[in-house]
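Protocol step 4 of 5: obtain the predicted structure for the target chain.
Materials: sequence only (see below). No template structures provided, no constraints applied. The aim of this step is simply to have a reference model before the mutagenesis design in step 5. Sequence pasted as it appears in the construct record:
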Amino acid sequence: MAPLKKLKMKNLWRHALPLLVLAALLSGCGEKETRKITVFSTRQESLIRPALDAFARKHGVQIECVCEDAGALLIKIVAEGATSRADVFLATDVGDLCAASQHGVLKPLASESLEGSIPAHLRDPGNEWFAISKRARVIAYNNEKIKPEFLASYADLADPKWKGRLLLPAARTEGNPSMVALLIADHGEARTETILKGWLANLAAAGFADGAALLQALVAGQGDVGIVDSSDFLRFMEKVPDAPLAIFWPDQNGGGACVNICGAGITRFAHNEADAVALIEWLATSEGQRIFADTNNELTASANILYSHMPKTSNTPLAQAGENQKQALILMDRAGYK
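Step 4 output (structure tokens):
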């Protein structure tokens, strides 16, 4: 009996083995390779993750984030070249987006949907980057000391009437050189330098490292007015709703308030370009815009989303912030802005 059992088992395996191999092959064919996008971002992950996760769920894509300052990210992408993991470069300052273009990090993105939704002044002339959200540079003021009718423009803050009352961000804080670069675009170098010197003559304290610190100083009475991002003001008021602060949108009788953006582009050596393009296009849709902008206390960038009673913002092409960035830094140094 024993030899018979062995013979039967041998025959059984002879017939079963091809079926097991076939099953394994069929099983492997049914598995889809996970698609992945890697986003190099200058914005902290918690502020972009809600929008990225919403896209990932819709499209079945895994999204990895590498978050550092712009200089470190650009150096990494340039140094690694074709081996870089970066598919998307996402930055919170137009100056950094322009630097990415100037260093050959980004490639043109041909997209009818993006060109149709993002206004020309909020994107690169060669379509290497597009705005996702925007924020304005506004004048914050202590409303227990100042009435809004006393405020007018950025240039007006250089008037001696504000001596010892003005607070400013430190010269090299994110977005500040870009604001000065846009002032150069609007007023020319000579006028911008005059404005900077007037601001510095009116300072009540040294420049602040971030908007929250400047706003806290206004509450504490260290100054009466200051220049901050609208997003910083909204975040501050969420935490301190009883603060005696308000904002004024400057230059409403002129070109409108300066804006900066959070924007994105495709890296030159993107490994998953198709999904990377789809991500940026989705971020410009109504759904993507609202998730991204709301998470960051910013304004939507799409021309397809209109706000009621929206103050005027500047239509100066933001690419000029990149073109004038070097000169802005020179003017700030020459004026003694630290």
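Step 4 remarks: Confidence is low (pLDDT under 50) at residues 1-10, 16-31. The chain has 13 helices and ten strands.
Proceed to step 5.
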